[in-house]
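Entry:
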Amino acid sequence: MSRPQSICVFCGSRRGTDPALAHAAAELGRTLAENGITLVYGAGGIGLMDVLAQAALDAGGKVTGVMPRHLAREELLKDGLTDLHIVETMHDRKRVMFELSGAFVALPGGIGTLEETVEILSWRQLGIHDKPIVLLNAGGAWDHFEALMRGRVAAGFCAPSDLELYEIVDRVDQLLPALDMARPPRIPSFTDWT
């Protein structure tokens, strides 16, 4: 699979309590910019979203933001983006980010980040797309999610192949190699689901 020209990053509108997470967000923004990859994200000017976007912009990268109109208030919207899409709903936001991106990376975040990540995994499971998905596990931030997924497999609610829907990397320098090696997942048949 060829390296994507644009990557959507899901991440928190808060920084979290672990300084390593903001460091990882900044390193990710720089890495995308230095490799000529456009960052697509939720257009926020707060939390990890702000750290990520600012690092990409500071490194000369292209940053595309997508934000619903009801959230596009001055204190939330990031200034200086390369491109900005104001949409009507959260559903529109996810659709536009999906359409603009060749892969997805999830940094830590709250309910919104979890929801975006699980939905894009679900779409991949259903064969709606075969774009790579990588969870950036800085500071072990996705360890509980991985345990949850393995528990769903053990309980018979997920197929073992569902664990192939995503890659987990611990460091930013592992991200691009993981994307370079990404392969489309095996889509389970209905017999796998019953």
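Residues 19-34 form the longest helix (16 residues).
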